[in-house]
């Protein structure tokens, strides 16, 4: 029995360590490339780091020196800020009403939101493109902001689950005390939703920072690069210089990995809540 | 009471107005508009266009490259399907008492978090034909004869890309399975263990039935995901060589934004929607009427 348990624990560790190696390997090798000189890219094995005395930070310096990286960072932050504020404001109130109130067109509204989840992501742009362009938002930061605010609905599930756990008696006593509905929402419900709001903000940040397609499609202008489209353009310009591109890859990976390291618990809880929606 | 009911109505109406309007204008209307556009020859720019009936549908069914692309989607679908038992096993392992479980959980989900474009380029480097890490790895293991043009050999490229997709998305399912396992009442497990049930029996008769709903979701997610594979081939090969690694969504997007045939592209988008809903319904019947009925005693 004891040896059986030891053996099974050994096998488990072996399996997990293999998984870790598979996860880390492509990132680690990219990191190795990012600290190599052009000559070492040819002379050393891609599986090994460069000899310590030839480690270089030149590739990183070159990427960080690119003005478009700063532009990309700024644009990403602006898109993030606006999308998050609107997503939270609209998401909290929508989820609250759907979860707590009965009204005449409730079924219809709910089925609208369900329909919204069924419509496939990428191909919808074929018809959405002319609407956004028609509003004069092509090549503006407004295009991704509007699409992220209107089109991504996962926050509703997170908020609804959270609201269903808040006691209804709170609402009732506030109304009896003469509080208006908006007052009740703004002063009591919204603050109570803070943990869910944190989860929503972190998960949305990761999705938005990582999104390639919407900025690529709607904002081809150089001045409107995001972090992700910056990397795409950088890659096209660095054709063949893997060491510089590798530095770019590592830099673009960092923001979301950092968020993950800091807020892992929120992220995992939110991802699960976003999936389990009945 | 009358004023209260009124206040309520005003609150509901004023609060739902903006989110519902946004949803209708930018999600529901574009989604439904795809059906209308699929009957036109719109080029994406011209102010007017003709209604051409079902011509686009005919064209779509005769488009060999689209069928080739759909076949490529199947590679992603089947490889991800094969991974589901592995993902489930991983979740069970991570759920058991083991040293380092927290660290492993962090690592297994890491690829899902990382910027997909950055990952794609990292793999582009990994599989590169000149000084590529994959070939170096094989050489180090003495397996030189397995070295390949990973991203340009038409009979291999889809497997390479699907591998990248597995690398990126498998952790998501592991985390979902793990959450389902953890939401299971612990006392049942312990009671069964005390009664002498083996790990396999526990897994087979207690854990599996209780996570069937999550399996259901993961299966559907796999279908939806496989049909909508886009960014990995877009960045790594742009569907090439030729159409060897094109996917249905990539082909649809290119039909619209590269070849300016929005009418035909809308038809393909309708086909994607149709396939998703159809498979969703079939699966619902299969899982809920056939499988779960059996499991319920």
Number of domains of chain B: 1
What's the count of strands of chain A?
Answer: 0
- What are the low-pLDDT stretches of chain A, counting only 5+ consecutive residues below 50? none
Mean pLDDT of chain B: 87
The chain pair forming the largest interface, with residue counts per chain, is:
A-B, 90 and 91 residues
Classify the beta-strand content of chain A into a percent band: under 5%
Secondary-structure map:
The complex is a heterodimer of chains A (278) and B (297).
Chain A: H1 2-34, H2 38-43, H3 58-64, H4 67-100, H5 106-118, H6 125-134, H7 142-151, H8 154-163, H9 168-176, H10 181-192, H11 194-210, H12 213-218, H13 227-237, H14 242-275
Helix pairs in contact in A: 1-14, 3-14, 4-7, 4-8, 4-11, 4-13, 8-11, 9-10, 11-14, 13-14
Chain B: H1 2-37, H2 55-62, H3 64-95, H4 101-113, H5 116-126, H6 133-140, H7 157-182, H8 186-194, H9 199-210, H10 212-227, H11 231-236, H12 248-257, H13 262-295
Helix pairs in contact in B: 1-13, 2-13, 3-7, 3-10, 3-12, 4-7, 10-13, 12-13
Verbal overview:
The complex is a heterodimer of chains A (278) and B (297). In chain A, 40% of the residues are buried. The two termini of chain A are 43 Å apart. In chain A, α4 (67-100) packs across α8, α4 packs across α11 and α9 runs antiparallel to α10. With 278 residues, chain A is mainly α. Chain A has helices at residues 2-34, 38-43, 58-64, 67-100, 106-118, 125-134, 142-151, 154-163, 168-176, 181-192, 194-210, 213-218, 227-237, 242-275. Chain A has 2 domains: 20-56, no CATH class; 62-275, Orthogonal Bundle (MetI-like fold), CATH 1.10.3720.10. Chain B has 297 residues and is mostly helical. Chain B has one domain: Orthogonal Bundle (MetI-like fold). Chain B is globular. The interface between A and B is large, with 90 and 91 residues.
């Amino acid at each position: 029995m004891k040896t059986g348990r030891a053996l099974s624990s050994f096998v488990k560790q072996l399996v997990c360590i293999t998984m870790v190696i598979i996860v880390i390997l492509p990132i680690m090798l990219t990191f190795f490339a990012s600290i190599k000189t052009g000559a070492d890219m040819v002379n050393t094995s891609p599986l090994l780091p460069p000899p310590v005395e030839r480690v270089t930070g030149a590739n990183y310096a070159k990427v960080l020196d690119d003005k478009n990286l700063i532009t990309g960072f700024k644009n990403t932050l602006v898109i993030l800020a606006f999308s998050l504020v609107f997503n939270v404001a609209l998401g909290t109130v929508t989820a609250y009403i759907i979860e707590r109130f009965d009204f005449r067109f409730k079924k219809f509204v709910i089925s609208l939101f369900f329909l919204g989840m069924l419509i496939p992501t990428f191909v919808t742009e074929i018809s959405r493109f002319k609407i956004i362009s028609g509003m004069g938002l092509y090549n503006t930061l407004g295009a991704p902001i509007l699409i992220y605010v209107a089109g991504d609905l996962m926050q509703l599930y997170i908020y609804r689950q959270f609201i269903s756990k808040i006691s209804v008696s709170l609402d009732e006593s506030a109304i009896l005390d003469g509080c208006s509905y908006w007052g009740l929402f703004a002063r009591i419900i919204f603050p109570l939703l803070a943990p869910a709001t944190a989860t929503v903000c972190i998960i949305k940040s990761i999705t938005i920072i990582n999104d390639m397609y919407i900025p690529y499609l709607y904002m081809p202008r150089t001045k409107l690069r995001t972090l992700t489209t910056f990397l795409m353009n950088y890659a096209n310009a660095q054709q063949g210089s893997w060491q510089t591109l590798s530095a770019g890859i590592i830099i673009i990976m960092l923001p979301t990995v950092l968020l993950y390291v800091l807020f892992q618990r929120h992220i995992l809880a939110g991802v699960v809540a976003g999936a389990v929606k009945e | 009471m009358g004023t209260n009911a009124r206040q309520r109505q005003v609150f509901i109406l004023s609060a739902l107005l903006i989110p519902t309007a946004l949803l209708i204008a930018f999600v529901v209307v574009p989604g439904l508009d795809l059906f209308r556009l699929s009957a036109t020859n719109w080029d994406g720019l011209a102010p007017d266009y003709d209604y051409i009936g079902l011509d686009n549908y005919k064209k779509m069914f005769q488009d060999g490259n689209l069928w080739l692309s759909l076949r490529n989607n199947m590679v992603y679908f089947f490889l991800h399907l094969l991974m589901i038992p592995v993902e489930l096993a991983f979740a069970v392992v991570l759920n058991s008492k083991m040293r380092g479980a927290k660290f492993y959980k962090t690592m297994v989900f890491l690829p899902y978090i990382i910027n997909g474009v950055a990952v794609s380029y990292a793999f582009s480097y990994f599989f590169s034909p000149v000084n590529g890490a994959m070939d170096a790895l094989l050489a180090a293991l003495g397996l030189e004869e397995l070295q390949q043009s990973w991203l340009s050999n038409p009979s291999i490229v889809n497997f390479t890309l699907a591998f990248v997709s597995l690398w990126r998305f498998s952790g998501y399912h592991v985390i979902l399975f793990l959450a389902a396992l953890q939401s299971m009442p612990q006392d049942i497990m312990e009671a069964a263990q005390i009664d002498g049930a083996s790990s396999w029996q526990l897994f087979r008769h207690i854990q599996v039935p209780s996570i069937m709903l999550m399996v259901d979701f993961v299966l559907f997610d796999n279908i939806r995901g496989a049909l909508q594979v886009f960014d990995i081939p877009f960045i790594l090969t742009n569907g090439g060589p030729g159409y060897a690694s094109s996917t249905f969504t990539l082909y649809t997007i290119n039909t619209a934004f590269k070849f300016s045939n929005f009418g035909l592209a809308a038809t393909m988008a309708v086909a994607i929607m149709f396939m998703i809903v159809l498979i969703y319904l079939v699966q619902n019947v299969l899982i809920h009427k056939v499988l779960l009925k059996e499991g319920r005693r």
